[in-house]
Amino acid sequence: MTVNKMVPFVTFRTRVRDESIERPNPYRWEDKTSDDYFSGKRVVLFSLPGAFSPTCSTYQLPDFEKLYDEFEREGTNAIYCISVNDAFVMNAWGKALGLQKVKLIPDGSGEFTRKMGMLVAKENLGFGMRSWRYAAVIDNGVVEQWFEEDGFSDNCETDPYGISSPQNVLEALKSFQTAAAARPGRVNISQIP
Q1: How far apart are CA 145 and CA 164, in angstroms?
Q2: pTM metric for this prediction
Q3: Which end of the chain is less enclosed by CB atoms within 10 A, N or C?
Q4: What is the full DSSP assignment across 142-156?
């Protein structure tokens, strides 16, 4: 995926809490599309190999949650974490981590990840097909900034992490905002009272 390209249009199968359901597990299926997540807003999307995995659960997702307010100050409307995991797994992972701000997107079939060009084999870890680790700033469905870990390959022996870290993405976002503000005729939206 490169900058200035639209994200692919897919339908995601999500599970949402519904108090009108009188069962011990009050959730129902709800389809969400790429438009629901990306149209009309500026978001940060980051992808990782799997829910509950060490780097993802210890650093990447918790740090995006901790830095959420700083991202918001830089003009982002939402932060999404996507993984080739089903809605049940993603909901359980979010609950286990106590997420309040970052929203999880289940790409259970891997369709979005495949269309982004980021689907890789992880059989060496017993995962099957999963996402390569990356992050992006997406403005109204168009990739504005791209952060892909080095070494993209099937069955990679390592799990590179750093380029797509929240700290790196936030720093790049701040630099982007500063550069945009310095251009003649441009207004830095973070400076508007």
Answers
A1: 11
A2: 0.89
A3: C
A4: EEEEEEE-S---TT-
Closest C-alpha among 77, 108, 113, 116 to residue 90: 108
Among 83, 97, 74, residue whose Cα is nearest residue 171: 74
| 8 Å CB contact between 110 and 94 | no
> Cα 52 to chain center, whole Å?
15
Buried b (16+ CB within 10 A) or exposed e, 53-84: bebbbeebbbebbebbeebeebbbebbbbbbb
Q: Give φ, ψ of 58 to 5 degrees.
A: -95, -35
Q: What does the block give as tokens for 131?
A: 């996402």
pLDDT in tens, 67-87: 999 999 999 999 999 999 999
| Of 43, 45, 56, 119, catalytic | 56
Structure tokens at 44: 């940060």
pLDDT at 12 > cutoff 60: yes
Is residue 56 flagged as an active site residue?
A: yes
Q: Distance (Å, rounded) from C-alpha 45 to C-alpha 12?
A: 15
